[in-house]
Specification:
alpha/beta, 40% helix, Rossmann fold, binds thiamine diphosphate, 13% strand, 10 helices, 282 residues
Length: 282
């Protein structure tokens, strides 16, 4: 089955329900290991729901389809969100999610590109955008209309490789490339170390059509993705302000949301509170 080709009218309610399902999967996965990079995952759940269930053109039965849109997760440690989306999309089994982070699992805490649906390996930060530029150039050479979406983080904007890639994309006018910059304000041990503001102006200065939105507002996410379809000779950047732990107050308010670890009893309490907040469990 070919999904989202071309994207029609967005069903915002259905996309929000998908985001809730992604969050539910992530909580189950993290509970299985007692820990995970779940704050970030919960923060980008709305974006991944909008991508996989509205914007991206792909075929879950034919992952090598040349005309597929590519989604590159540059922050490999956000894998928990990607595994949830790939399972909901029917690319990996939902039953496998519980193996997240376990020995011999395909669902590592940082992405492996040998797992179905993963376009690039992402453990070493700062490389996703460069890979996306290469893929977009390759697609252009092949006269393909497929697009390349690269998620990257605010921490990765502190790496020179990100700006080399940004400069190249602007120079080459890669309008089939969309950078999705997750500005969640955190880095390993607390707030992002270097002041990256004004983020949007930096991307504009490098020649990108740039939007800045609340990344947890589904309407805003869907609209920004729709605007980024324009093929006008300029790459597209969407700066998403997201809340780490979004939808789960115990994680939203945690000072250690980079790698969140609590005991099983606390996970059970967190999951029960989540289900109460969203209504009946699915
Ligand atoms: C090149 C590189 N340097 C350091 C690390 C170690 N590391 C893993 S996660 C992380 C924090 C990154 O912050 P950010 O990219 O903003 O992600 P978030 O805070 O949302 O987890 C760091 C430094 C790494 N994976 N790759």
């Amino acid at each position: 089955m070919l999904r989202n080709s071309p994207p029609g009218e967005a069903d915002i309610g259905a996309l929000k329900a998908r985001a809730t399902k992604l969050r539910r999967h992530m909580l189950t996965m993290a509970r299985g290991q007692g820990a995970g990079y779940i704050g970030q995952g919960l923060g980008v759940a709305d974006l991944l729901a909008a991508l996989y269930f509205h914007e991206l053109r792909y075929d879950p039965q034919n992952l090598g389809w040349v005309e597929r849109d590519r989604f590159l997760l540059s922050t490999g440690h956000y894998s928990i969100a990607l595994w949830a989306a790939l399972a909901e999309a029917g690319i990996i089994p939902v039953d496998e999610l519980i193996t997240y982070g376990a020995d011999d699992s395909r669902l590592e805490m940082s992405t492996l590109d040998t797992t179905p649906g993963v376009e690039v390996i992402g453990g070493s930060l700062g490389h996703g955008l460069g890979q996306g530029v290469g893929q977009a150039l390759g697609l252009r050479l092949q006269k393909s209309d497929a697009r390349v979406f690269v998620e990257l983080s605010d921490g990765e904007m502190q790496e020179g490789s990100t700006w080399e890639a940004a400069m190249s994309a602007g120079h080459f006018g890669l309008d089939q490339l969309v950078a999705l910059i997750d500005c969640n304000g955190i880095q390993a041990d607390g707030p992002v170390v270097l002041d990256m503001e004004p983020v949007a102006d930096k991307w504009r200065a490098f020649g990108w059509d740039t939007a800045e939105i609340d990344g947890n507002d589904m309407d805003a996410v869907v609209s920004a993705l729709a605007a980024a379809r324009r093929r006008n000779g300029r790459p597209k950047a969407i700066v998403l302000r997201t809340l780490p732990g979004k939808g789960v107050p115990r994680i939203e308010t945690s000072e250690k949301s980079h790698f969140f670890r609590v005991d099983v009893r606390e996970w059970d309490g967190i999951i029960a509170a989540f289900e109460t907040s969203v209504g009946e469990p699915a």
